[in-house]
Amino acid sequence: MLIELYVGTLTRYYSEQWENTVTREGGSSPFTGPSSPNAVVDPVELQGVISDWREKASEKLKEHLPEPLAWQEGMLPPYEVANLTFTGYGGAIMFAAYTITGREPRPTTFQQTWNNDPAVDELMKSATNNSIWEVLNSTIWLPCNFNFGIGMKDPSGQPIRCSSIDMLWTSLQQLNESTWKASPERIAEWRRIEQTTDMTFDRQAQFGFSVFFTMCKLAREKRLPMKLHF
Questions:
Q1: Is the peptide bond before 37 cis (omega within 30 degrees of 0)?
Q2: Phi-psi region of 142 (alpha: psi -120 to 50; beta: other; left: phi over 0)
Q3: Is the dihedral of CA 135, 151, 83, 99 positive or negative?
Q4: Nearest of 144, 20, 2 to residue 79 by alpha carbon
Q5: Hey, where are the domains in the chain?
Q6: What is the DSSP letter of 119?
Q7: Are 65 and 150 in contact (CB under 8 A)?
Q8: In sequence order, what DSSP letters do the residues of 145-207 get, joined into one string?
Q9: Predicted pLDDT at 40
């Protein structure tokens, strides 16, 4: 399963005018599967759709924002895509789950999936919300700061879980400080880890964490949204 992190404008994302693993392999669109016949992909029209959606999101979040949501939209800002991979994503969220819950023992070997993992299941079934888990377990992060994840619909009308770039950044720093205590430079180096089935779980988690960390850092610096693409 394809899982990537996209940093850039939502106009470009939903216009399908960007490259990723699918297009580099010959696909005509970065999205897999058939497109909706009613999908809006014209950038000019989309910019208006995104503007309306952002205004509604601001209204939904107004009690938690010092000012309305604002970032540069359109096709001019650059974008970046990172291949998080299915197992890299799994490593990152399982690492977070074991760190948050304190469950022992942690996995030691490569994990193909997080399905039925006890730490993940504990957080998914918990009656109380954990802010770090809510934020990491989102699908879109906006360039602002609120400390929770919230359900809403994306500009295409699909249900998503939304959080903020600033809170994701804080959460990633807290996870690192409570475990590896690695420098930003060291974390960035982990993106070069080659994923193999004989790697340790710690290395698997470090790769996924590094992709989250470096892409979140970019989104924070550029003040642009970040989208989990799968």
A1: no
A2: beta
A3: positive
A4: 20
A5: 4-229
A6: H
A7: no
A8: --SS-EEEE-TTS-EEEEEEHHHHHHHHHHHHHTTT---HHHHHHGGGPPP-TTSBHHHHHHH
A9: 73
Residue entry with tokens 């959460």: 171
Residue 21: per-residue pLDDT? 80
Q: What is the pLDDT of residue 26?
A: 73
Is 0.85 surpassed by the pTM of this model?
yes
CB environment 67-105: b (16+ within 10 A), e (fewer): eebebebebebebbbbebbbbbbbbbbbbbbbbbbeeee
Per-residue pLDDT, averaged over 85-89, amounts to 96
Helix (H), strand (E) at residue 141? strand 140-142
Exposed, middle or buried, 26 (CB in 10 Å: 0-12/13-18/19+)? exposed
200 falls in which pLDDT band (50, 70, 90)?
A: very high
Sign of CA dihedral 128, 130, 136, 141: positive
Can you say how many angstroms the Cα of residue 37 is from the centroid of all Cα atoms in its chain?
27
Q: List the beta bridge partners of residue 162.
A: 140, 150
Percent helix, strand, coil in the chain, to 5, is: 45, 10, 40
pLDDT at 78: 95
pLDDT (0 to 100) of residue 27: 73
Q: Residue written as tokens 């850092």?
A: 217
C-alpha to C-alpha distances, 1 to 84, 130, 230, nearest whole angstrom = 11, 27, 7
